[in-house]
Design a protein that fits this description.
With 140 residues, the chain is mainly alpha-helical. A two-stranded antiparallel ribbon has the order 1-2. Helix 1 packs across helix 3, helix 4 crosses helix 5 and helix 5 crosses helix 6. The chain is elongated, with a radius of gyration of 21 Å.
């Protein structure tokens, strides 16, 4: 009889706790713009708060709140790329205000949302417009 310790990692079945944490992560992804309480997630996973936080971090690689921030930032980045203004993107992604959004954005992405917006803007690198309306680009 083969025990779990003897089985290679690739052959092990995910534990019930791991599956419960994955359900919680999916819940975060689907409800990232809403207020999500740690107690809700722990109850969804049928684990105590402390155990949930430990297992979540082990399985996902981030604590639950940090994971939520990452999901919100990804959503905000998509909104910014589609032309939504900064303050509106922050609000629609689930952040309390623009400064809260900016702080998390910079800690996760390494740049401010304004710099990100400039980099993804179709006008990035533009130095002006010609009389016929075409954009002049900086050379180099």
């Amino acid at each position: 009889m083969t025990t779990a310790r003897q089985m290679p990692l690739t052959e092990r079945k995910p534990s019930r706790r791991a599956a419960a944490v994955r359900r919680a992560a999916e819940y975060i992804e689907q409800n990232s713009t809403e207020r999500i309480l740690l107690q809700e997630l722990a109850a969804l996973a049928n684990l105590s708060l402390c155990r949930f936080a430990t297992v979540f971090r082990r399985e996902i690689g981030l604590p639950p709140h940090r994971y939520l921030c990452h999901i919100r930032i990804q959503h905000a980045m998509a909104l910014l790329r589609s032309g939504v203004p900064l303050a509106m993107a922050a609000s629609e992604a689930g952040f309390f205000d623009q400064s809260h959004f900016s702080r998390h954005f910079k800690s996760i992405c390494g740049i401010t949302p304004g710099k990100y917006l400039y980099q993804v803007s179709p006008m990035a690198g533009a130095v002006g417009r010609r009389d016929d309306g075409r954009v002049l680009r900086a050379s180099g």
